[in-house]
TrEMBL record:
Reaction catalyzed: N(6)-methyl-L-lysyl(4)-[histone H3] + S-adenosyl-L-methionine = N(6),N(6)-dimethyl-L-lysyl(4)-[histone H3] + S-adenosyl-L-homocysteine + H(+); N(6),N(6)-dimethyl-L-lysyl(20)-[histone H4] + S-adenosyl-L-methionine = N(6),N(6),N(6)-trimethyl-L-lysyl(20)-[histone H4] + S-adenosyl-L-homocysteine + H(+); L-lysyl(20)-[histone H4] + S-adenosyl-L-methionine = N(6)-methyl-L-lysyl(20)-[histone H4] + S-adenosyl-L-homocysteine + H(+); N(6)-methyl-L-lysyl(20)-[histone H4] + S-adenosyl-L-methionine = N(6),N(6)-dimethyl-L-lysyl(20)-[histone H4] + S-adenosyl-L-homocysteine + H(+)
Protein family per UniProt: Belongs to the class V-like SAM-binding methyltransferase superfamily. SETD4 family.
Protein name in UniProt: SET domain-containing protein 4
UniProt source species: Molothrus ater (Brown-headed cowbird)
GO annotations of cellular component type: cytosol; nucleus
Major location (coarse): cytoplasm
Limits of the SET domain: 42-272
UniProt keyword terms in alphabetical order: Cytoplasm, Inflammatory response, Methyltransferase, Nucleus, S-adenosyl-L-methionine, Transferase
Pfam families: Rubis-subs-bind, SET
InterPro entries: Rubisco_LSMT_subst-bd (IPR015353), Rubisco_LSMT_subst-bd_sf (IPR036464), SET_dom (IPR001214), SET_dom_sf (IPR046341), SET_MeTrfase (IPR016852), SETD3_SETD6_MTase (IPR050600), SETD4_SET (IPR044429)
Superkingdom classification of source: Eukaryota
Keyword field contains Lipid biosynthesis: no
Length: 439
């Protein structure tokens, strides 16, 4: 008796562990029951996907049947999509059509989200709004203390993103005020900065690309957004391939998989070939062991390793700038990029070799000395970035202890920096072997 009970216990434990690894089904939760009912009323039929909580990715969708390459993952009817057409057919439509200068499609969608969220129970979109994140983890929402810990190129983009939302808010105040007749409460209270920031992040992190014809009531910015309830629960993986688009025949937005997916496994899609800096900037997350990821070398860091006494230094920098070789210089899982090594070779040219710079940009070898010097400098830069990254990781662990409120954002930057460190250490190893081969 004892023996068999033990075996059942082990089986149950294994089953529990397996469930935990695969994901915990959340379709019994009230918000998902309401969302599925709401989608069904709009013509969405689905029996295979279940909302679930996953260990690595958080909230996502699991499949109740095995998927093969070529299968449709999801087909979401046009009626379920939230686009600028939805906005224009709402009570906001007339106000948008009469407002001059015309608002952007992005602002129209932001305004609609804020207004519907404010409407609460009265909003026909409430079942969707209820499952949207309450807060976001994009750099635009991060505190300056956290933004300062980002790698230089990402820090600059994060600050630009923040300023862009501030400018959108500033320039939209008059338009928001014009909507006062629609509300009993002051529009200044409803359309405040944090409401706009939330709406902007919702659109930036969750919309699918869908081109709409231009309408005169909108500014000339492209109208390419659609919010896709339920479909937007699908998480990203750099290792899967999918095909997605609006099917004119079925009038639905469809995603087909090019990969297999086991029963009860999380269904993953690919948002695009993005590195971790781009994923964090645009979507607010980092992918572990992302094959697309790389560490960027700024022009300032690059030039630190070349003597200001070099008479041709100015000319070399000018050549690299003119041929766009001072941007997108990276270390990746396979070592320094061709672009980075090319820039280093041009900067390492001896006076008598300077005339060869065109050949180097085309991928030719100038001399063994030049090749060796470029590799040696790449190794020094890599080592500098390793030390810099380790220093930042120390700062993060200190801040995590001191600032409880920043923990979530700090953990994300820590993930990004830890991935960077792995890439740089791999690059250092590759460079060490290359340098040994050339000596």
């Amino acid at each position: 008796m004892k023996k068999s009970r033990g075996r059942t216990g082990r089986k149950r434990r294994r089953k529990h562990l397996k469930g935990f690894m695969d994901g915990v089904n959340c379709s019994h939760k009230l918000e998902y029951i309401k969302l599925k009912k709401w989608l069904k009323e709009r013509g969405f039929e689905d029996s295979n996907l279940r909302p679930a909580e996953f260990w690595e990715t958080g909230r996502g969708l699991m499949t109740t049947k095995a998927l093969q390459a070529g299968d449709v993952i999801i087909s979401l009817p046009e009626k379920c999509l939230l686009t600028t057409s939805t906005v224009l057919s709402s009570c906001l439509g007339g106000h948008i059509e009469n407002w001059k200068p015309p608002v952007s499609p992005l602002l129209a969608l932001c305004t609609f989200l804020i207004a519907e969220k404010h409407a609460g129970e009265k909003s026909p979109w409430k079942p969707y709004l209820d499952v949207l994140p309450k807060t976001y983890t994009c750099p635009a929402c991060m505190e300056p203390d956290v933004i300062n810990l980002l790698p230089k190129p990402l820090k600059k983009k994060a600050q630009e993103q923040k300023m862009m939302i501030q400018e959108l808010f500033r320039s939209s105040k008059a338009f928001f005020s014009s909507l006062q007749p629609l509300f009993t409460e002051s529009t200044g209270t409803i359309f405040n900065f944090s409401a706009l920031e939330w709406a902007w992040c919702t659109i930036n992190t969750r919309t699918i690309y869908m081109k709409h014809p231009h309408r005169d009531c909108f500014s000339l910015e492209p109208d390419v957004y659609a919010l896709a309830p339920y479909l937007d629960l699908l998480n990203h993986s750099p290792n899967v391939q999918v095909k997605a688009g609006f099917n004119e025949q079925t009038r639905s937005y469809e995603i087909w998989t090019n990969s297999q997916c086991r029963k009860y496994q999380e269904v993953l899609i690919c948002y695009g070939p993005h590195d971790n800096q781009r994923l964090l900037l645009e979507y607010g997350f980092v992918a572990m062991d992302n094959p697309q990821s790389s560490v960027y070398v700024s022009a300032d860091t690059l030039l630190k390793y070349f003597s200001p006494l070099d008479k041709q230094r100015k000319a070399k920098v000018s050549i690299l700038k003119d041929h766009d070789f001072l941007e997108n210089l990276t270390f990746g899982w396979e070592g320094p990029s061709w672009r980075l090594l090319t820039a280093l070779k041009v900067l390492s040219l001896a006076a008598e070799e300077f005339a060869c710079w065109r050949r180097i940009l085309l991928g030719d070898v100038s001399s063994a000395r030049n090749e060796q010097q470029a590799l040696a400098t790449a190794a020094k830069i890599c080592q500098f970035l390793i030390e810099e990254t380790q220093h930042v990781l120390l700062q993060i662990s200190q801040l995590k202890r001191d600032k409880e409120n920043l923990k979530t954002h700090l953990a994300l930057v820590e993930m990004l920096r830890s991935e960077d460190l792995k890439i740089l250490q791999k690059s250092a190893e590759i460079l060490c072997n290359l340098n040994l081969g050339t000596t």
